[in-house]
Amino acid sequence: MFVIGTLSGHVVETALGYFINPITTVLLGVFVLRERIRRLQWVAIGIAALAVVVIIIGYGSFPWIALSLTASFGVYGLIKKKIGPAVDAVSGLTLESFWLIPVAVVQLIIVAQTSGITFGTVSVWHTSLLVFAGIATAVPLLLFAAGARRINLTVIGMIQFMTPIMQFLTGVLILHEPMPTERLIGFVIVWVAVGVFVIDLVLAARRGRRTRAAAVV
User: Fold this and answer.
1) Sign (positive/negative) of CA torsion 178, 182, 186, 191?
2) Which candidate, 148, 153, 140, 29, places its Cα nearest to that of 87?
3) What does the pLDDT read at residue 122?
4) Is the domain of 80 the same as that of 156?
5) Segments forming the whole domain that contains residue 117
6) 159 in the same domain as 206
7) Domain boundary at 148, 170, 198, which?
8) Co-location of 158 and 74 in the same domain
């Protein structure tokens, strides 16, 4: 879904998906892993849902790329969390790669019969970029798998806000994708949700430090 969004001129929409993704991750933590969340986190979830509704109504189109991204990556994080204690990061990523081999073979056959495979046929630079794309995909997944085993989903959600910020700036400032008023309003509402979410995490961290300090005393 990320590749489709990038190649079809919807980088900003992929950013929306990754902005919503941390909140989706928290929801999965609540309903699947039975993690508890605080009142401000529920407020952030409600504001994020409002942002999606505003974008759908105001912009006139359903953000299916964004919502598909947040749903798929949220489930991916959940699976990583569930199997984390049993499988280390390298082994997990290796198993994922083996599971995807049949899918990759079918995809290569379809591409070869339609638009054609460009690997090794365009230029050395083009081939090098394709090889690097694999590395740029595998390394973050490996780090994500290692991190998901060590921290809870709430912290994972907060860290993941860095990705959509970079994607949004890339789409608007570098690729010059359109940013009509309706979409901008939707993003502002999302940013409000993100702000509420982060404030809650900061306050919770402070309360945790005070509690630990009191326990030591």
Assistant:
1) positive
2) 148
3) 81
4) yes
5) 87-148
6) yes
7) 148
8) yes
Is 12 exposed, middle or buried, given 0-12, 13-18 or 19+ CB atoms closer than 10 A?
buried
Report the C-alpha gap between 117 and 55 in whole angstroms.
37
Q: Are residues 81 and 91 in the same domain?
A: no
Residues 144 and 196 in one domain: no
Averaged pLDDT, 74-85: 77
Domain co-membership, 76 together with 107: no
Return the percentage of the chain with pLDDT > 90, whole number: 2
Residue with tokens 């083009």: 126
pTM of the model: 0.68
Per the CB < 8 A criterion, the answer to whether 36 and 30 are in contact is yes
Q: Looking at the structure, do residues 63 and 166 belong to the same domain, yes or no?
A: yes
Quick one: 37 and 6 in the same domain? yes
Q: What is the mean pLDDT of the chain?
A: 81
Give the model confidence (pLDDT) of 117-168 as tens digits: 887 788 889 889 888 888 888 888 778 777 777 776 666 666 767 778 888 8
Domain count, the chain: 2
| DSSP SS3 for 87 | coil
Contacts 24+ apart (CB under 8 A), 95-103: 96/141
Separation of alpha carbons 109 and 104, rounded Å: 9
Residue, of 90 and 199, whose pLDDT is higher: 199
Which residues, 6+ apart, have CB-to-CB distance to 201 below 8 Å? 154, 155, 158
